[in-house]
Amino acid sequence: MNKKVVIIGAGLGGCYLAAGLVEQFDVTMIELSDQLPLLRDRVMDVARPAVTYPHIESGFGGTTKAWHNALMEIDAIVFDKKWPFSKDTIAPYYEQAYRALSGTTREHVFKFADALRDNLINMGFPESLLAQNMFIPKVRVNAWNTLALKGKVHTIEGEVTELIPDGEGGIGKVKIRRQDGEHVFVDADYFVLAAGGLGSPLLLQKLAKSWPLEGLKHTGVHYEDHPIAFVGEVELNKPLYKLWDFPVKTKSGNANIRLPFSLYWNDLNISFQLRPAHHLRLSKPRTKIISVLTDLRNFPFKPINYWYLLTHVDDIFDILSFKFGLRIPTRNYSILMVAEQPSASYCAVWKKDNNTGINRRWEADDSYIKDLNEALDLFLKTIRPTIKQSRLFPEWPAQIYSSSHHSGTARLSKSPEDGVCDLNGQVHGLSNLFVCDGSLIPASGFVNTGLTIAALAMRMSDFLSNLVSTKPNAK
């Protein structure tokens, strides 16, 4: 008889883990789905407010229903300095994740990225800024649907409210509140939290109240979600617009590649994208930029979003470029900054007893803003030969918002003194409890975390499969 595994959460990590386990395990997935109040409406910001909505999601597929999931690898330097293992450890799984999420190979993606890099260098941009590429599918990929998991796994729609110890050093069962209000209990040999960087730590914090293991003290701590902001505009003497949304064809459809300009400053990985701007031709200089593309993608049936789109000319041209490859000539570009954030030294994600609200404390203090300003100055100096003029928005620090890649709240670590999980994603001190989502990630630089979450899920699938193969009676 196959071992039983319960996966709590059916987002990116949970789905790819389940897909790797179904041949060898009896898999049950528990998903909150559309239980009220909706998960997306439960987050309560106690510091800087989130701008993106939703920035977490429930339902089968999780946030893959709401985001394009641009694929980027975390830089090797970030691994070396801030992860408990090197990038070489996860590299084979990055290759697998590229195949699964892009419809092509990592080698194919990097071939097109190298071509784009050569074009940028020939145009006069420094090679030192062109280290990391971004692959962006033209259509969203719901992980649950793509992997066709329906019928392959057992599913329970409801909310896990408690992890119940077995008295032998592990978890024996979980308590679930179903949509009809009834409570059920499910047992298994292995349990995996895949409820996301804002969801998984809440169950671990509740467990810690009755089982105060050393590693669980870090639950909800070390949070990071890299900030994003339009910080200014430049006029260039180079036709950079020709290389925006560099096309690449895959088996699953067309996609685009971008190479953000990136650098390191004060041990932080910071990027700048020069987005073609056309608004400058129509009005006086701006003091801030707001994009409505995310709202339009997530809520396409709200008529007001189309009215907003008509008032955001840059977004219209971005759609023409991204979807149809139409690149309208311009000399003007907005500067979009996406930066690494130092992990929080305090508990930044928590929940009060008998309350469905998720408290999130996301901050960007003055010293951090100073670092970002200095990095921005360095970037502009580095590309100065290509600039005719530039203008920074004086109030851009007030316009920073988080990018919905919630990480670090149950991070990987070599010992329980430094984090929640060991190098395999197993909770320190527990024999059968694992985490498989963004909360594992100790540091992400400035990159989207989807590719890394999928790679970690595939790596965990191999680990659990090997575990039961070598220790068939192990729990």
Describe this structure in words.
With 475 residues, the chain is of the alpha/beta class. It is 27% helix and 23% strand. Strands 7-6-5-2-1-8-19 form a 7-stranded mixed β-sheet, covered by helices on one side. The longest helix has 21 residues, at 450-470. The model has no long low-confidence stretch (mean pLDDT 91).
Note the topology:
Elements: E1 3-8, H1 12-21, E2 25-31, E3 43-45, H2 76-82, H3 87-102, H4 106-123, E4 134-137, H5 143-146, E5 154-165, E6 171-178, E7 183-187, E8 190-193, H6 200-210, E9 227-236, E10 246-250, E11 253-258, E12 261-265, E13 268-276, H7 293-298, H8 303-310, H9 313-324, E14 332-339, E15 349-350, E16 358-360, H10 366-382, E17 387-392, E18 401-402, E19 433-435, H11 450-470
Parallel strand pairs: 1-2, 1-8, 2-5, 3-16, 8-19
Antiparallel strand pairs: 4-11, 5-6, 6-7, 9-14, 9-17, 9-18, 10-11, 12-13, 13-14, 15-16
Helix pairs in contact: 1-11, 3-11
- Side by side, the strands of the main sheet go 7-6-5-2-1-8-19
Mean pLDDT across the residues is 91
Helix content: 25-40%
How many whole angstroms does the radius of gyration measure? Answer: 22 Å
Characterize this entry briefly.
27% of the residues lie in helices and 23% in strands. It is of the alpha/beta class and 475 residues long.
How would you describe this structure in keywords?
single chain; 475 residues; alpha/beta; 19 strands
